[in-house]
Amino acid sequence: MEHARHVFRALLVLVVALTVFILGRGFLVPKSYGLYGPYRADNVAEQARIRAPRHGGPESCAPCHAKQATERAAGSHKTVSCEVCHAPLSVHVVDGVVKAKMPLDRSYTLCARCHRKIAGRPEKFPQVVLDQHVPVAVEGDVCLQCHNPHSPKP
Ligand code: HEC
Ligand code: HEC
Ligand code: HEC
Ligand code: HEC
Q1: Rounded distance, CA 26 to CA 55, Å?
Q2: pLDDT tens by residue, 133-145
Q3: Is the CB of 115 under 6 A from ligand 3?
């Protein structure tokens, strides 16, 4: 019986340590931690408040570029966002005011990124073998000679 007291003391130390750990953790771990995953969920909303969004979506271009917006909405690029081919809105417009020129890529490589024939693409996706499709050298802005990027069906 005498030796059991040692065990009891060790157990007591353990229980006290565990209680301190559980209480301490409750105080130190932020409330929203673990709500969706191993991170503080409130941080998402906090970051969204302090950082201005970079992209505006196609609707953000339409008030100033009605012609391109109308063409795109009616053609087969209606699912391709303006900012995919150009650049994020924030590069060009800040608080509704034009701050810098929007980059413009006229190279065939822009189109080839999505339309070059590759075995891995879904078969139904429109794709071309570049040097068989184009009757001249595949270089520069050759694709734009026959296709309007905002309404590409010739
Ligand atoms: C507040 C009005 C406004 C908004 C919003 C706006 N633009 Fe523009 N954009 C302009 C003006 C003005 C010019 C002409 C500037 C120039 O030629 O220097 C221009 C020029 C351009 C050009 C031509 C650049 C060149 O080198 O000729 C492109 C491409 C363009 N914008 C794309 C976009 C896209 C894509 C969006 C949406 C993400 C957008 N713009 C949103 C006003 C706007
Ligand atoms: C598939 C890629 C692509 C998409 C999507 C796209 N553009 Fe363009 N855009 C281009 C290219 C390439 C040019 C250069 C055309 C030329 O020089 O003939 C251009 C030119 C422009 C210009 C300069 C004037 C002109 O028409 O040549 C403006 C403004 C513009 N785009 C705005 C937009 C807006 C707004 C959207 C969305 C509604 C959009 N673009 C979607 C590729 C694209
Ligand atoms: C970000 C990817 C992307 C880029 C870049 C892109 N396209 Fe497209 N393109 C698409 C999608 C998506 C479609 C619609 C496909 C569908 O309807 O299944 C499409 C449709 C087309 C079609 C119509 C095919 C048809 O039968 O209706 C042509 C032509 C075309 N694109 C040419 C071009 C040209 C030229 C360029 C360069 C100026 C270009 N595309 C840049 C994604 C892209
Ligand atoms: C000499 C004119 C011409 C040039 C240059 C040209 N195209 Fe085309 N393209 C056409 C015509 C016409 C069609 C529609 C008939 C067809 O399907 O062959 C077409 C169709 C397409 C299609 C749809 C194919 C499908 O299966 O529905 C894509 C994608 C395309 N072109 C991409 C491009 C790209 C990318 C470039 C630049 C490398 C380019 N084109 C250059 C004339 C041209």
Answers
A1: 39
A2: 999 999 999 999 9
A3: yes
